Amino acid sequence: MHATGKTLFQTLINQRGWQDHQVFKRRYEQAARQLAELEGPPSIATATIEKRQFFRYAHGEVRTPQTVARRVLEFMFPGIPATRLLGPAPSGPQPETPRTAASRGSSMESSEYGLEDVVTVAANESARFAAQAESSNVGPHTLEQMEADIRRIVDSYPNRPVGPLFHEVRALRDRAFELLEGRQPPKYTRDLYVGAGVLCGVLANASFDLGRYDAAETQARTAFLFGELAGHNGLCAWVRGLQALISYWDGRPADAVRLAESGTGFTPESGTAHIRLESIKARAYGQLGRADDALGALSAADRLRERLTDADELPGGMMAFPLEKQLFYASSTHLWLAGPQHLSDAEARADESVEMFEAAPPERRRLGEMSLARMDLAMARLGRGDLAGAADQIQEVLAISARRRTESVDRRVGHFGRRLALHPGAGSPVAVGMRESIIAHQERTIAELPPGGSP
């Protein structure tokens, strides 16, 4: 379409001082963000206007803009349809914009865009905003159901296959995202951020159990963001612990220490998050060979445990850090530090941890974590020459792992196998039997996504 002369759009932007493309572009993008927040969808928030399109609007080369542009323009110039806005400017005295006329208090009742229209438009805008603010796509029942689903998931995670659970958690996370894109009172928004953060945290843990460290770190970063948006210190501290664990298992103990230290800056109302952070630091310091720092972190975890009075503010289950888990983190720390005394301490802590895990009802046992505690116990017994005692633990671990494998347990089994091959008793029947079992386990084809527990 050819230019038709001065448009109403050009008249109004001249009145407002928006005739420079960059100035108008900033106003346009600000309006798009406000429109996305008030009416949606969120994708409108990224709308912008290129220089060529801006001048085409001004020169009358476009009469019917695309849907997004139409909505933004009509939001910027209330009461003026986009087709009229991009049409020729009225002849005679130049009409003022509703905003300009209102600000000057002019009497323009007879003008097409006069004070009467301004008052009506303003009233309609207020009524529309009030209706939107009052409406909500989330109610107490929706949140209660989501919280119940989250509790069930985190409670059953250590005993369920990761494959089916992963898909279930992902679907529930998508539902939380969908609700967040709608409209709800601020108090519900915070609860949704917490729920979405927990679900991303579970997906991070599941990705880690599957050996997908990059994906786990991405999920964890998203979970941490939601914790910050919700102002939920417990969630932020827990996610920092998960990030530290990923770094520890990825052979980056210095990063693990840094992340765990960062997590201590978020103080939960209650619970075990800081005990977990100190225990993770102890393992990382052990991996670094910093014995004094490692033992100091173990002592700090013990002191925090002694002062613990209230349950976790998070849903519990896989997100809790019970004493039996703290014990096998301590055993791992002592194994890193090596030496006869540390070997003895590692065996004692791991043995106590396994006993506590076994004391739970079968349907409540944290099998992945118990397997890791058994691996610590097997390593300690191997270190002091008790091959038969080590074999007992290995057989238990392999029996569980055949049904619910995790990458962390597989790695520990592989490490044990390499240590066993170098042991003075490697040629004994017991050692040969263990090595054959480990090789068979490692060669077994995994027909589906491996299930797992929380490391």
Could you walk me through the main structural features you see in this protein, from its secondary elements to its overall organization?
Among the domains are: 8-134, no CATH class; 338-455. 69% of the residues lie in helices and 0% in strands. The chain contains 21 helices and no strands. It has helices spanning 8-16, 21-38, 51-58, 67-76, 82-85, 98-104, 115-134, 140-156, 162-180, 186-209, 213-230, 233-249, 253-263, 273-288, 291-307, 323-337, 340-359, 367-383, 387-401, 407-421, 429-443. The protein is elongated. The termini are far apart.
Summarize the structure.
This protein has 455 residues and is mainly alpha-helical. It has helices spanning 8-16, 21-38, 51-58, 67-76, 82-85, 98-104, 115-134, 140-156, 162-180, 186-209, 213-230, 233-249, 253-263, 273-288, 291-307, 323-337, 340-359, 367-383, 387-401, 407-421, 429-443.
